[in-house]
# Entry
Amino acid sequence: MISGKTELIAHIGFPTHAFKAPMIYNPYFDQAGIDAVVVPMGCKTEDYPTFLRAVFSLQNIRGALITMPHKVTTAGLLDEVSPTAQIAGACNAVRRTEDGRLVGDMFDGEGFVRGVLRKGQNLTGIRALVVGCGGVGSAIAASLAAAGVSTLQLFDAYTPSMEGLAGRLRQHYPALLVETGSNDPAGCDLVVNATPMGMNEGDPLPMDVDRIAPTTFVGEVVMKAETTAFLAAAQARGCRVQVGTDMLFEQIPAYLEFFGLPSTTAEVLREVATLKY
# Structure
């Protein structure tokens, strides 16, 4: 029941028809008795800078979830962004401080890392490969660096994205060994497909699966299918895997903590969610 006391979380992007957050957050708020609501807000690119400031002039706003096409733009509109958002060059969560400043963070990578850790995979001192250095890949790489991996191997067909991410990682984590230019998974403890490959039937695999050791943990960001061809091939080799939707559900507790709301677990969120894949 929405009342005059209900706090708003704006979900800003365009178009809004594919938004999943309202179908996860709002059932959870209902179950937990939290007087807040996530509201989709379709905002075109040309209107976004003005709209972001305007929406935070509301006195009953708790925060904002930012999605495409505004994640990159947001990082340059705020008063403060986290190191993870600086490395990713994008931001997907914004809140207002008591003194009126807008601060932002990026939780795609945090969701991925939380899921991996909860599945028992150690990240401290390991070698990780991230294929795809766009927004989500950059966020995952930043969160893996924060989690203590010793070596990050990056690959992207678009060299400027790959080298730009490598430079930002080296600046923020000087002790981290960052390598670029190879998607060979041999010798890696963790490999991640952070590309769209797997969205469509017949897509090529993001790396040579035959080069992945059975002891390697394999992660995916594609959510169109629960088990993509890449994950199926990795499982056939005996690898433990993480599906794309785990990243989505695991990052929501981090969002809730960022907004100062009662948090929960990915399992609870999956149980109450009304979305369908």
About this structure: The domain at 7-106+248-272 is CATH 3.40.50.10860 (Rossmann fold). The first strand starts at residue 7 and ends at 13. The chain has two domains: 7-106+248-272, 109-242.
